[in-house]
Amino acid sequence: MKFQLALCQMKVVMDKSVNLKTAERMIREASKNGAQVIALPEMFNCPYSNKYFREYGEPENGETCKMLSSLAKELKVTIIGGSIPELAEDRVYNTSYSFSKDGEMIGKHRKIHLFDIDVKGGIRFKESETLTAGNEITMFDTEFCKIGVAICYDVRFPELFRKMTLAGAKLIVLPGAFNMTTGPAHWDLTMRARALDNQIYFAAVSPARDTEGPYQAYGSSCVANPWGEFCGKADAREAIVYSEIDLEYLDDIRNQLPLLKHRKEELY
Ligand SMILES: O=C(O)CCC(=O)C(=O)O
């Protein structure tokens, strides 16, 4: 079984309606080019800043969800809708909604690990000033395979992905927006490591870099294959990354190098 994955590395601007139009344009283009699973970046409708999350936030089934659901249904594609600020009661979550090709919501992931860091000479960010953490692992079935979804800083916690792998995920999609300090240092390495350790396809989708916006995303959306190599990669500019996800190849790699079978669970 093979299928086509597309990652829409879109430019995110201050105007929410422009962001929704860009997402729609890129999803339509990806679908026209044969993509069957299409993913968007973290916080694709909102500038990535604590200042804006509440203002741009929407309850579940707000206008962004409605747009993604109807596009999925119209184009008959699975959409992993990056993430957006979700308003629930008085809280704000960083939430990714996924839709089946019938337009049904099949996944909802609230970012589990909040990005609260202070790197000397680099970046300081404290998501917990505005956001609340989720507490569930997110996986769903599609006609192709089980897909897991996590968001950005979640990627740094390998146990999460091992768990998804053991539960049958073959593709993990990570909407993410690394920055210009940790991006060059860790992005490529971390995405390849998650793919290699678990012998899965691991796809990370970032916004394009906007040197005029309040946050400079690293870009570099990529797909790493079960051998740990990139099989799709963007630079910092707006682009769609296409990759073939080949589940027979995944099985071949696992047969040739049976890492998952060689685990000694009784020891660790
Ligand atoms: O882990 C990192 O270095 C970046 C994480 C991040 O930007 C985020 O979680 O939004």
Detail the topology: elements first, then pairings:
Layout (H helix, E strand, L loop, with lengths): L1 E8 L6 H17 L4 E3 L13 H4 L6 H13 L2 E3 L3 E5 L2 E9 L5 E6 L5 E3 L5 E3 L11 E4 L4 E4 L8 H9 L2 E7 L6 H17 L2 E5 L16 E3 L5 E4 L5 E8 H10 L12
Parallel strand pairs: 1-2, 2-3, 10-11, 11-12
Antiparallel strand pairs: 1-15, 3-5, 4-5, 5-6, 7-8, 9-10, 12-13, 13-14
This protein binds 2-oxoglutaric acid.
What does this molecule look like?
Residues 3-247 form the CN hydrolase domain. Belongs to the carbon-nitrogen hydrolase superfamily. NIT1/NIT2 family. It comes from Sinanaerobacter chloroacetimidivorans. One of its GO terms (biological process) is asparagine metabolic process. The chain has 268 residues and is α/β, with parallel strands linked by helices. 26% of the residues lie in helices and 28% in strands. It has one domain (2-256): Nitrilase/N-carbamoyl-D-aminoacid amidohydrolase, CATH 3.60.110. Strand 10, helix 4 and strand 11 form a beta-alpha-beta unit. Helix 1 packs parallel to helix 3 (63-75). The protein is globular. It binds 2-oxoglutaric acid. 2-oxoglutaric acid is lined by residues 115, 152-153, 156, 177-179, 182, 186. The site of 2-oxoglutaric acid has 9 residues, from helix 5.
What composes the largest sheet? 7 strands, mixed
Strand content: 25-35%
- Ligand types: 2-oxoglutaric acid
Oligomer: single chain
CATH topology: Nitrilase/N-carbamoyl-D-aminoacid amidohydrolase
Radius of gyration, rounded? 17 Å
By DSSP, the count of extended strands is: 15
CATH class: Alpha Beta
Number of domains: 1
Query: How much helix is in the residues?
Result: 25-40%
**Mean of residue pLDDT?**
97
In the predicted model, the low-confidence regions spanning at least 5 consecutive residues are none
CATH superfamily: Carbon-nitrogen hydrolase
- Kindly, what is the distance between the CA atoms of the first and last residues, rounded to a whole number of angstroms? 33 Å
Count of helical stretches: 6
Task: Write the H/E string, N to C.
Answer: EHEHHEEEEEEEEHEHEEEEH
**Class by SSE composition:** alpha/beta
CATH architecture: 4-Layer Sandwich
Described by the principal axes of the CA atoms, the overall outline is: globular
